[in-house]
Amino acid sequence: MRKSILFFFIIWCNIGYTLLAQTNERGINPASTSATWFQHRELKLLDKSKNLQYYQITKGQNWVFQYTYKAADIAEIADDEFSESIFIEIPQNKDKHFSKKLGFKKQKAIYLKSCYCPDAGPVQIKKGSIKAQKINDKTWHVIIKIKVPDFDAKQQAKFKKIETDFILQEP
């Protein structure tokens, strides 16, 4: 009996090592980020139920900044995908730099967590800031600092800082 358990354990470890080695050789789906901004757009509320707020980027008079992070995932593992996005709508600004506090009614700021987990979904950012310096007509260097909201009030909120260049997404 012990030999058969040991045999199956060795086989199981070998299969796991082989899958891991194959995955690394294939390069898996690597982690990625994107940072874009949109002119003449707004975040339109589509549906609001309980704590969830679903938005869509539509035509409007403002700017929308969108940052997305997609974690690396392994093709052989189901439901290991994870991504998070931040959407911030602000009034158009002709200056070469601006700084705004987030969480007030003037700006819509949304954090979206996408994963196979119980706290996935969009929530409103209630505390944070966005600072931006214009590089050229299509690029802003942006620093976003937010307190990441959580569906479960029992968990402590996390702070997140993103600093990167946002490129204009033209229609």
Secondary-structure blueprint:
Elements: H1 2-26, E1 32-49, E2 52-59, E3 62-70, E4 82-91, E5 97-102, E6 108-115, E7 121-124, E8 128-136, E9 139-148, E10 158-168
Parallel strand pairs: 1-10
Antiparallel strand pairs: 1-2, 1-3, 3-4, 4-6, 5-8, 6-7, 8-9, 9-10
What does this structure look like?
By secondary structure, the protein is mainly beta. It folds into two domains: 1-28; 31-168, no CATH class. It contains one helix and ten strands. The chain has one helix spanning 2-26; strands at 32-49, 52-59, 62-70, 82-91, 97-102, 108-115, 121-124, 128-136, 139-148, 158-168. Strands 1, 2, 3, 4, 5, 6, 7, 8, 9 and 10 form a ten-stranded mixed sheet that branches. 18% of the residues are buried.
How confident overall, as mean pLDDT?
Answer: 78
DSSP strand count: 10
Uncertain segments of ≥5 residues (pLDDT<50)?
Answer: 3-24
Structural class: mainly beta
Q: How large a portion of the residues is in β-strands, by DSSP E?
A: over 45%
DSSP helix fraction: 10-25%
The overall number of domains is 2
SSE pattern, N- to C-terminal? HEEEEEEEEEE
Shape, principal axes of CA atoms:
globular
Q: Over all CA atoms, what is the radius of gyration?
A: 21 Å
Gap between N and C termini, in Å? 66 Å
Biggest sheet details:
10 strands, mixed
Number of helices: 1
